[in-house]
Amino acid sequence: MSTYPLLSLAIWIPIFAGLVVLTTGGDRNAPLARMLSLIGAVVAFLVTIPLWINFDIANGGMQFVELKTWIPRFNINYHLGVDGISMLFVILNAFITIIVVAAGWEVIQQKVAQYNAAFLIMSGLMNGIFTSLDGVLFYVFFEASLIPLYLIIGVWGGPNRVYAAFKFFLYTLFGSLLFLLALMYLFIQSGGSFSILEWHKLPIPLGPQVWLFLAFMIAFAVKVPMWPVHTWLPDAHVEAPTGGSIVLAAIALKLGAYGFLRFSLPIAPDASHELSGLVVALSLIAVVYIGFVALVQADMKKLVAYSSIAHMGFVTLGFFMFSSMGIEGALVQMVSHGFVSGAMFFCIGVMYDRVHSRQIADYGGVVNTMPKFAALFMLFTMANAGLPATSGFVGEFMVILGAVKYNFWVAFAAASSMVIGAAYSLWMYKRVIFGDVANHHVAELTDINKREFAILAVLAIATLWMGVYPQPFTEVMHASVNDLLHHVAISKIQ
Amino acid sequence: MFDNFVVPNLLPAAPEIFLVIMALAILLIDLTVKDSRRTVTFVLTQLTLIGCAAIQFATSTGEIGYTFSNMFVDDLMSDLLKLFLYMTVIIVLFYSRGYVIDRAAMNKGEYYVLALFATLGMMVMISANHFVTIYIGLELLSLSLYAMVAMNRDSVVSTEAAMKYFVLGALASGLLLYGMSMIYGATGTLEITAIAERLYSGGVNRTVMVFGLVFLVAGLAFKLGVVPFHMWIPDVYHGAPTSVTLFIGSAPKLAAFAIVMRLLVNGLITLAQDWQSMLIILSVLSMAIGNLAAIAQTNFKRMLAYSAISHMGFMLLGIVTGVVGGDARYALNAYSSAMFYVIAYVLMSAGTFGMILMMSRAGFEADELEDLKGLNKRSPWFAGVMLMLMFSMAGVPFFIGFFAKFSVLQAVVAAGYIWLAIVAVLFSLIGAFYYLRVVKLMYFDAPADETPLSAGMDMRILISANGLAVAFLGLFPQVIMSLCAYALLRSL
After folding, report:
1. What is the ipTM of this complex?
2. What's the pTM?
């Protein structure tokens, strides 16, 4: 095991890089700002690699732990660590940050330094969320990460960006404030500790557990987002710049789901069992109903946004199957969705940069002018639909398998999404890519350049790798997921 | 003839005495100052405050010391609050300087001397252990502030604000005095510690006490500016010259906190149930009206006035949760969180009004929200500073405002008032909206006027330091938090 504070580096290198990028100032120095951002993102990614290489897959507990006192007045510690559940997200986050910096390379011409700095700082903050083992530390990162995304949507977004930025910020703040009160309640119940791991062992009667569970659920459901508190997401996605959409879909949505695993299930296991029906119902609504909503969208970004909600419905469904198959499937789905939705939003961004429209109706016959792009876009569309041999299939299949054990009809409803997902993904693809060249905009399209090709190729490799050989991803999860299930199985009512 | 005359121990009041002497000296010296920038007066004023801080530091024993027949107390709480007070006034005068020089009517030596007398008033309030001392301090502060508000005498708005402030302030003083006289009637003493003892030993007419308490709380609420005694706040904040608004909006909050502690906690802790239930109502109303009314404002100073109301309401939450069902176990935790909140608020408020001063020029007040438009384009750095201040006010981490809210909320939850905590966070959510709007104006909108900021280098450095302090103390809040807890532990 390495002696370097790898997790601290994963958090603070991007933040520091972001601050350095800010000092390059105005757009005169834009090339320098871009280069520094790329270097920062790559270095931040490299320091996360040893997390995977040195990870002990037999150990279900926390690894790479760092513990320092932060605010002794309230016994708040700077306590970091990763297990098989969180480790992959740290790496995914660092990886996506590189993609985002590269994706904005030519497109972003205004306030370049601030744009890249916002993403780098947000990347560091989100690593903080995935690695915090202290309730307050988690909360601090959780809420602070709203600031950069608020600015990204508001400054570089589309025409309705102000509305979207406010809606995003206030919605998520609403959820997290009740979460804060739940943390304080636990602090007092545990006799003055903010350690999440100690809370996992804390006995709590059923009544308070239910309230805690609901407070957690509001915070995380908004973030996931689950039906019916999902309405901020399509607005945020549509108005955000391409990079913002990628981060939002690939990482930010995972924060809520991750919260369920880190807080809801182990801290309130009895309430989780008690209320699992509620979560399963909401998840199925997300999977089926939101799938249909996606079908009728005329705006490509909205369509992918709704499909994200449907995919995240799978994730929450998997968690509340209380089986290792369900939870691991959900985790695989989360990682896969990071690659696939990131790629989908990037593809839409590629077209938007050229035509300045996201309406499906403004396209048609793109394959005639952009053949390379069409081929890669095809792969991601298939992955979005959950085609075998792509990463999208593995997670959904595992969740459905887990669901069959839980209840046949739940599994049936969940499986119907395979059909709906294929319908909205492929139908959109058909209308945009195939057919005759629709108008002179499409006729004047130029195929993707080397930079765009490189980004899509990397994402394509990741998608296929996870689809064909998911073993490296699942093997790191086993021990931690079993540990978690062990916690969830023990009643905390005394 | 002098048999009964004992020279009181002057040491606990040394900073006050030093300040009086210096203020009078500056008043005289200023007559000879020919310089239109009044550099000598300014520097002497600042040196006086630094001297006060040094004396405070040197004479602080950490023990509770009474003097002037127990009318004056010097304990760690007063030491700490006074040190923050000096620091705040020093910052405030630095920020005001450019603004004052640009406005002939205010560019007088009296401006600085009045500020010093106001500071003296606050120091006396902080150290009061007697109703008369509290009243003297309060009036010294208020009268100085009335004059400062009216100083820009050609301005109709300022004059109106001063008049309003004076009338309502006098009314509040009357209420406070009436309450004090009632309590005097019931207990037979004006000395705060003696009142506490009489109440503890029993035999005091409770009806009269509670009657007096109502007036006392009303008077305090006036001075704190909480609903429904808040009417003067928006008009005075709006009408006063911005440099005076900065002064009113920052340092006096420390003194107001101190007299709340002295009167209610030191003096009337036995009646905690009664005043706590009164303060809960005031607190909830303040958070509601402050946050909701702030949304409707177009003037930045008025918005900050309503925000101040809501912040004081939030701070009161720390005061009302000290005693639960006669159990004072949570007192230290609760009161120190309120103290931390006040200090954090003063720091943020000073920075925010400082930003308005910095954007103002001769003949131009940058006090409309619209004036912030596109600040990110005009000056990315100061937009960033303002961003930190606004998110801090909204209570978003990693800024000190978050930990201020955090410590008060945990005190509320610890005391078992979960519903109160939920109300508080919901109103903070509403409050977040108008702070976000300021960020929106700075970052999302195009500037209406492209003039670069004209402030001098000293101002720039100090505002930057203020903004960075808000961020730095948000990362490392421990020092001030534990200082507050320690000071109260040794003083209560």
Report:
1. 0.89
2. 0.92
